[in-house]
Amino acid sequence: MAPSDTNLKMLYAKRDRIFSRMQSISSQVRDMDSKSFNADAFLCDFETVDSLREDFEGVLDKIILLELKANPDYLVNYQPLTTFEDLLGCVKRAAKRLQSQSQTGDHVTLAGQHRIPKLPPIEIPEFNGDIKNWPLFISSFRNVVHNNTSLTDSEKLYYLIGKLTGRARSICAGITPSAENYSLIFDLLNSKYEDKRLSATAYLDQLFEFKPISSAKPSNLELFLDKFASSVAALKNLKVNDLSDFTFLHVALKKLDTDTARAFESYQSLNKKGCEIPLFVDLVSFVRDHIKVLERTSSVPKAANKGQFDSKLSSTQAYTSSSESTVCIKGIGGSSKTIQGSVEIKFYSRFDRNVNYTMESLVVDKITERLPTTTVDASLLSNFEDIALADDTYFNPGPIQLLIGASIFPHLLLSNKVRGRPSHASPIALETILGYVIVGDAPVRVASNESVSYCCTGDPLDSTIRKFWELEEVDVPSVLSPEDKMSEEFYTSTTTRDSDGRYVVALPFKGDVNTLGNSRQASENRFYCLERKMQASPQLKLAYDNIILEYLEKNYLSAVDCDSSDISYFIPHHGVIREDKVTTKLRVVLDGSCKTTTNVSLNDLLYRGQNFQGNLFHIIINFRLFPVALSADIRQMFLSIGVRESDRRFQRILYRFSPQQPLQVYEFNRVVFGLKSSPFHALRTIKQLAADEGVAYPRAREIIDTSLYMDDFVYSIPTEDVGISTASEMIGLMKAGQFELVKWTSNSQVVLDSIPPSHRLPGVKEFDESNQHKVLGLCWSPTSDNFCIKIDTPIEICTKRTILSCVAKIWDVMGFVAPVVLFVKLIIKQLWLSNCDWDDTPSEDIVKMWSRFKEELPLLSHIKIPRHVGMNVDSIATILGFADASEKAYGGVIYFHVQNNNDSTIRLITAKSKVSPKKVVSLARLELCAILILAQLIKNVVVACQNRIVFRNIFAFSDSTVALCWTHSSPHRWSTFVANRVTKIQSYLSPQNLYHVSGKDNPADCLSRGLTPSQIINHPLWFSGPPWAHLDVAQWPAVPFNPSVEPEAPEEKKQTFLAATLNEKYPILSLGDRISSWSKLLRSVVFVCRFVKLLPHRYRMSASDYEFAELLILRELQRFYFRAEIAKLKESQVCSPAFRHLKPFLKDGVIRVGGRLRNSDLSYDEKYPILLPRKDPILNLLVEYHHKLNCHAGPDLLMALLRQKYWILSARNLIRNRIHKCMPCFRLRPKPTFPEMADHRSCRVVQSAKPFIHTGTDYAGPFKVTITRGRGIRSTKAYVCLFVCMTTRAVHIELAGDLSTASFMGAFKRFLSRRGPVGRIYSDNGTNYIGAKRKLSELHEFLSSKYHNTEFGNVLAENRIDWSLNVPTASHFGGNWEANIKSLKSHLYRVIGDTILSFEELCTVLTQIESVMNTRPLCRTLSSDPSEPLALTPAHFLNLTPLKCLPAEEIDENLTTLARHDLLDKLVQSFWKRWRREYLHTLQSRRKWNTPVDPVVVGSVVILINDNSPPLHWPLGVVEELFPDSTGVTRIARVKTAIGSYLRPVVRLCPLPNQ
């Protein structure tokens, strides 16, 4: 740090201290009138104010000079001096007044005058921003301070600021508290709070928000007087002109939405500034105008804040209705709630209506259960009775109607807290803007039969277990973080050694220690809990006392006197008992993560430091290499390192040896167990010790990194002599740093004898469990020099929890029994796949597997694995590895082949397995993953043994030829999955070391299928490898692998070769395919031209820019299409015949039309338009642009407009094409598609037994008739029911008096009685009458009525008649009867006109018209010869057959006189022959709709024709189903619209263009 920076810090501190001193003196002026004021002390302080002023000015000058030297642009500011002088003036004036009172003696009165009693000082009430408190405050302040001429503005400002709190004080924010600003601050307060309407609104809010009194208690009635009655009195005192009108206005504004109310207030402030309080009529007038504004504009929907939730009950009580929503919210444990909608909520403080918040909340049926879950014992919380609670019924369970989200909650919290009694569990009252809220544990009344549940969060165990069956991923190298670098630099710069050689370290703080709050209270509570445990367990008490006494004796711990002003940290502590420890079974652990009152712990402020922890895998490998094994332990490793004295205050603990004693404060002088930085300090100090003292102990320095696992020393030595020297050097090296290496054990008695007895520990060595590894398991017997597996008997109950617990207790870091662990992993996978819960009993097959495993599990304790792998100094070592996979799992195993002279030894070194993933993966991929695991294991083993032994060769075997083919080839050939793993395998292991092995000789097969404990004990391959592994290496079946054995290996990348072709189209023209409008195309070209510097850069695009871009586009278009013509024009040659009539010429590189208008007065572009080709995407954009620009002009007008500047070849076709595809134009005049006319129905072209077998029916009318003839008789309605024979076109007409079912049934019965039986009836659907003229509405209702259909259906069934309905709006499907209806109306209107006939007269006329229609020729007369037969009419077929007849056989044409009785049949048959010969062929041709069209398809967007509304109001729909006829032509479709689905004929659908 620069010296100037240090000086500045000192000067700033000195300036702040002087200013603080002056503030403390001036604060005494405020208490001059109180009894506690000490005049002598004040006068003593007053003697120093002049020197304080000189010192302050001098310090300020020095600060400014230094700042100007450091930064010449520094802004000089002497405002602090002005403020200091204001305070000084107040102090001097007060001192002068005090001195004058003491000289004159205020207590002495003149003779004859009465003694004036001394009154208490006048207290001005504080003002917190509540408008209801403003009148009292401002009245008191004006009378006492503001209007007091004896006070200066500085003194008035001092009194004013001192009485402002809360939101009222925020007005002063940013304003310098000086005398000249007093008027400004006072005026600001008046302008904000001197508001009669605001005050009246606050009182009305208090009246309306007052809750009804539930019981007649004095406190409740007093609250009524204090709140309600006082508000009424204050409201009347405001003297509002029309209080009732103002009340109506207030209620109306509350009922309106927020936006409308805000708009009204803005309107008032802008337009009616002179009116203090608006009237209710003003609001009504504004709302009327606002409705018109909203109808012309569209509203913007609000987005709901998803952080808030509202119960359905409370949402129904809100001011705004909820909107629909389809969101599902998930919570703890995966429980979900369906969102009912969203609602806008506005909630208020129960104390101040001005405090309110508005938020968007999601509505659910219920947020949670009633809270609190049981009644709180409020008698034990008397300290909360005198504070303003947000909920004064907090102790009774109640429904939770609103959940406030994190976006609002932080703004509600304030700083104050009220704590409960320390004698029992008590919550804390947190101050919020809404009032105090109760948080924490509370005393409750719990019945004897109730239970208490405890909920806590834990590690994501599910995700951890799923790693069992995740695929092996590629390793990522670790990177040193910036914090690790900082901690290393801090350690290097602060670590020292004392006179004894002990290392003294400093706590590596990364944060400000001033952020630590009070930690003593939490530490005391934790100690009291520990003390109760010790009182219950005398053995624990004795052990704890002994440890504390030992720490005091060894100076690990020191008693200190606690100074409350010091920043320190009290660490809670507890004891951890380890029964498996031989010596110290109790360890004191400190909790450095305990939070203080500021929610910051000591560990939060410390660096963790780099992880120097030794690799347990490497240490065990080294431990097994050589014959002599050594093991030791560093005694109290952490406590052997000192801590810098200034940092010891952060390692304080509380303890006492008896509950009768006071709590004593102790400080740790050494590194303690429980701080985040302690492991780093311990291991980094050991490394520093090796670096500092390693010269004297070279062997110890060499092995310390590969032999130390935290405080455990584990190593193997080739000979006993080397072992003795190694032990000696390790003890000496540790002693140099004041570490003690004890608990020595070895399999060599000679080495043990060389170690002092005090440092030895006979017995079995057990590896301590670590936070970085799983628990329990690996034991070593020095006597037998073997490892064994320690097994705990599993719990009898079979659940997922107990199975997982059993697996976790098998500590097998080296994989000695990996197949057994895999067996249980497969069971766990089955549990997960079956979705079995943690404590549920799994399926029967899993229970059987688990029972078998549990019974055999103790057999693992009989397995003995030799520690020594057989390595000596001159041994030859070879690594032998195997990999295998199955559909269940995959893995790898490694053995050491050690050759000593002619003796070979095979030892299992390590193994690892993985369960195959749930997603199906090919077996070849799993085999590749197994080889990857094996390669990683080989690499780790080689790294662990480096500098100790050299391996002659490495053999890695796999029985998968596909995986070996992949690994022996370049990774680029394979897919990504295979290539990534092959790359990693080849980085770990050379492909020449990978060989093929038979499956029966592969020990890794155990890792891919799993073994039970009984199977692994006697397995022939697992512990010793295949039989040939014991032979000489030269005799192994290791043949180099040839990748050609798999000529077509899977997962090979398919290479695709792309051929590049030259694109003749120019870049500018290619924009036409990607841009949707002519304007965008021009702007894009302008930007391109600016980029290539063809146009200058301007702030806006000018007309010249657009003109340049247009000419460039058209020039490029002509160059592409008229390349040959441009070349001819440049050479002054004659153009092609297609262009000669236009006489083109070249001008500025653009072809223009010469024409014959040179002498006209038209503009240049009109006389010589630009020549353009027939079609191009750019021309489409140009035509569409001018079409829209000219209000969607028609083809002729648009062509005339385009010809003013452009001459497009074959322009009419292009223009019509683009107009046809214009969507607005098509919507105005939509055109349906007409499929090819269908063939006639069979009933039209097949002879029937008699007329009217197939009948079509329809209604016409209404017509006006009278019942009888006479004067004054009113007319009524009548309807015509028409029946048409579909075969002969004969008609039958009936008159119906009304549209009732009885009337129709009468007409139908008369028809049947006269014309005989009917086989099938055809009619319209009836919906063609929807929206028709009003006179047809009754007809439609009759035909579609349910009663009519039911009654008529019964008659049809009784007479064996079928009914066939056409599709709605398909009137052309019933052309036969529609044409006859037309003829009927034509004859009727020509005969009667507007004459109103009687019912009988109309019936007569209709019968005559029927006769006329039935005499119409079915076909044209073939000849005018009178000898020819008359034209065939429908009348020929009527009444020639009895009403009930039998079919007659065919009669020979040569009728004799003897067969006169057959004459009638002969006449009828002759009519049918003529019908076939003369009439049927007239139905042959299709007179319209004879051109095939593109059929509509499912998904087409169409317009539905509606004859009763203009085209722009015809609905849009999507075709969702087609109904083709027998010829495959679609004539009917189902169309889905916004209001439903409908069946419509295709001719009533208009497909939109551009589909």
UniProtKB/TrEMBL annotation:
Molecular function in Gene Ontology: nucleic acid binding
UniProt domain Integrase catalytic: residue ranges: 1247-1434
Gene Ontology terms: cellular component: DNA polymerase complex
GO BP terms in the entry: DNA biosynthetic process; DNA integration
InterPro entries reported in the protein's UniProt record: DNA/RNA_pol_sf, DUF1759, DUF5641, Integrase_cat-core, Integrase_H2C2, Retrotrans_Pao, RNaseH-like_sf, RNaseH_sf
Pfam family, one: DUF1759
PANTHER family assigned: GAG-LIKE PROTEIN (PTHR47331:SF1), PHD-TYPE DOMAIN-CONTAINING PROTEIN (PTHR47331)
Stated name of the protein: Integrase catalytic domain-containing protein
Record organism: Bombyx mori (Silk moth)
